Amino acid sequence: MLAVLPLVPLPYPAAAVTPVPAVPLARYLNEFWARDRPPAGCPSRAQIRADLGYWRPAAVVAGTTAGSRLGRFLIALLGPPAARVGDVLAWRNATLRE
């Protein structure tokens, strides 16, 4: 599960959530999480920066481990997580890693 506030449930049965409106990064991350592999068409760094700027997230929480494909992608994107508890990673004041 990936979460960025504000949240709404997705129409399919997966437990993922996405901000309103669903921006390219949200769609990409939800598909990545649901399939446990990177989907085609990763948003550009400029698009990711724009999406994070639009959301201005206070935190990003992901139901994944640091060693998973999604975990490695998020760590490369956001830097080391501020918290790790079981199969959950969390970042405070998430910004794109340079």
Tell me what the structure shows.
The strands form 2 sheets. This protein has a 4-stranded antiparallel sheet with strand order 1-4-6-5. Strands 2-3 form a two-stranded antiparallel ribbon. With 98 residues, the protein is α+β, with helices and mostly antiparallel strands. It starts with a strand and ends in a 6-residue tail after the last strand. It is globular, with a radius of gyration of 12 Å. The protein has helices at 24-35, 45-55, 69-78, and strands spanning 2-3, 8-9, 17-18, 59-62, 83-85, 88-92. The model is unreliable at 4-10 (pLDDT under 50).
Unreliable residue runs: 4-10
Tell me the total number of β-strands.
6
How many distinct helices? 3
Q: What class do helices, strands and sheet pairing give? A: alpha+beta
What is Rg?
A: 12 Å
- Helix and strand string, N-terminal first? EEEHHEHEE
> Mean of residue pLDDT?
79
Oligomer kind: single chain
Give the overall shape: globular
Distance between the termini: 25 Å
* Biggest sheet, spatial arrangement of strands: 1-4-6-5
Strand content: 15-25%
Structurally, how many domains make up the residues? 1
